[in-house]
Amino acid sequence: MSERPDLSTEEGRRSFIGYLNDRLPRKRAIAQGVLRNAAGELLLCELTYKKEWDLPGGVVDPGESPATCVEREVREELGLTLTAGALLAVNWLPPYRGWDDAVLFLYDLGTLRDDLDPSLFLRREIKDAHWVAMTDVDSHLAPYAARMLASAAEAEHTAYLEDGVAR
Questions:
Q1: What is the model's pTM?
Q2: Which CATH number is correct for 26-166, 3.90.79.10, 3.40.1190.10, 3.40.50.300, 3.40.390.10?
């Protein structure tokens, strides 16, 4: 951009936004959900592409809201149609194992009254799903995810976290 665009025109404003989009940092957004069963256990997904288990969810697509993302991901990967409830936490994640930093939006997905149907799982991503007591999640989750769940459970309101802990 050798010449400053005319910001008084729509074309000039769009040109400048394009310039900024090409140069400003881009941060990945992730949306995950806390889904419980009647016993109060949390659903954790055993993934095909990483060692640690994780909460249901995934990366937010361009132009998609985080709430829509978590609903889409649980529908695609687990065959469940759920509505994202309350936002439990916003968690900034520092770079981790080769991933750039990200912002994770954690939603309450409510309580599932029925059994899971493993035949509906998207097998290229989900090996299995497990109901796990909150006291046992640390042995299955990556440290940042375990910290995030503990912090969100203790928060009186939506928690803003950095690397799983209050700032």
A1: 0.85
A2: 3.90.79.10
